[in-house]
Amino acid sequence: PAAVSPAAAVAAAPAAPAHAATAELAQVATSSPLESARLFVAIATVALILFQGPKGDGVVNSLNENRVFGSAGEAKSAVDYVTAGLIGGFIVLSAVLATQQ
Questions:
Q1: Which member of 21, 61, 74, 87 has the lowest number of beta carbons within 10 Å of its beta carbon?
Q2: What's the pLDDT at 57?
Q3: Is the pLDDT of residue 93 over 90?
Q4: Number of Cβ within a 10 Å radius of residue 29
């Protein structure tokens, strides 16, 4: 038989379905309530960090325009505290889940 190059073998291998990642996330989310909470905290943290602008605009700017806070400094401080709380919550949930295994 003819030798098959690794690149050809990879190209010939069937691709995983696009919904495989979604199915894996669903399995993790339904495995335990703590896993679900950790997944939610992780997604919320990433979303909040991505919504923050590099120079204090983004979420902070929109909160200040709606007069949710008195000043932009207060809004930035509140967003920073929420971000830190979400990161701390993720670390605590990860530690708890690690001790359960």
A1: 21
A2: 62
A3: yes
A4: 15
